[in-house]
Amino acid sequence: MTKIIGHRGAAGLALENSRSSLLAAVKQGVDMIEFDTRRTADDHLVISHDPFTRRVAPESVVIREHSLAELQALFMHNGEAFLSLDDALDIVGSTPVIIELKDNGTVDELLLVLARHPQANVSVASFQHEELHLLRRAIPEMPIYVLEHFSPLEIVQSAVRLNATGIGLNKWLMNPLTYRLARRYHLELYVYTVNNMVIARFLRALYPHIHLCTNHPERFIKPKRLRSPRKIKRTATVKR
Predict the structure, then answer these.
(1) Spatial contact of 208 and 191, defined as CB atoms under 8 Å apart
(2) Is the bond into 193 cis (omega within 30 degrees of 0)?
(3) Quick one: which H or E segment has residue 88?
(4) What is the dotted CATH code of the domain comprising 4-219?
(5) Over the stretch 146-191, which tens digit does the pLDDT of each residue have?
(6) What is the dihedral of CA 83, 88, 92, 96, to 10 degrees?
(7) Burial of 223: CB neighbours in 10 Å, binned 0-12, 13-18, 19+
C-alpha cells in the first residue's frame, strides 16, 4: 500500500517546516511527515531545509552561525518562530516522522532529543551517509533511509552497505533498474516531491510499491466520508 508522506510538513498548505505546516500534515492524516534539521552554533537541531533563513524569514542569517535561542527570536514569514527538533516532535505527536539530517555532526544531539521523546515514531534520512552509519551503530533498530543527489544506482549499493530500511529518490531519477534492485534487496522506496496527480498515477503504474512524498497531501488522501443514515424502505399503501 502506498504511503503518503507530507514534505516539510505540508509545504503546499503552509510555510514549509513551520508549526502550521506540521499541523496541516497531521490534520490531513498523512502516513508520515518529513522535515529537515540543521545544526546551530550551539549544536542544537533546528527545523530548516536551507543553511540560511532567506527563503522563509524576512531576516537572512546563516543557521550554523547562530544559537538556537537567537534563531527562535526571529520570525518566519508567517509570524511563527523557528522550531527546534524537540518542538517538532511535540507538535506531530504520534504521527510517524522522517527526520532528514542536513548537516554532519548531528547524531549526538539527535540521540539526546530522541531520549526525551521515547514515544516518538522516528525514521531518519540523510544525504550524509556517515551520519547514517553513526546512527546505525548507536541505534541498530532505527529505520534509516539513504538519500542520493545524482546516482540512482549507487544509492542502492549504499543502502545495502548501511543495512538501511530504504531509499529516498528524486522523482526524475526514478527508473526501472533502481526499482528492481530496491525490491530485490527488500528496500522501501519513497520518491519526492510528487505534487501532480498525473505524475503520481504514472509513477504508481510503473512502480506500484513506492511511497509518495508530497507538498500537497490533500490531493492524495481521500477525506473520510461520514456514513450516511440508512434509508428506510417504504412500502406503498394500496387502497382497497
Answers:
(1) no
(2) yes
(3) helix 85-92
(4) 3.20.20.190
(5) 999 899 999 999 999 999 999 999 999 999 999 999 999 999 999 9
(6) 140
(7) exposed
Query: Are 148 and 127 contacting, i.e. CB atoms less than 8 angstroms apart?
Result: yes
Q: Give the burial class of 175: count Cβ atoms within 10 A of its Cβ; 0-12 exposed, 13-18 middle, 19 or more buried.
A: middle
What's the chain's length in residues? 240
**The model's pTM:** 0.92
- Give the separation between CA 238 and CA 240, rounded to whole angstroms: 6
Q: What is the pLDDT of residues 131-151, one digit of tens each?
A: 999 999 999 999 999 999 899
**pLDDT band with cut points at 50, 70 and 90 for residue 223:** low
Residues forming beta bridges with residue 32, ordered by sequence position: 5
Write down the mean pLDDT value for the chain. Answer: 93
User: CA-to-CA distance for 186 and 121, rounded, in angstroms?
Assistant: 21
Q: Which residue has the cell 516539510?
A: 8
What's the rounded Cα separation, in Å, for the pair 48 and 34?
Answer: 11
> What residue ranges in 74-180 does DSSP mark as E strands?
97-101, 122-126, 144-147, 166-170
* Grid cell locating 91: 507538535
**Res 236: pLDDT:** 38
SS3 222: coil
User: Taking the CB of residue 198, how many other CB atoms lie within 10 A of it?
Assistant: 7
The residue-averaged pLDDT of 212-237 equals 63
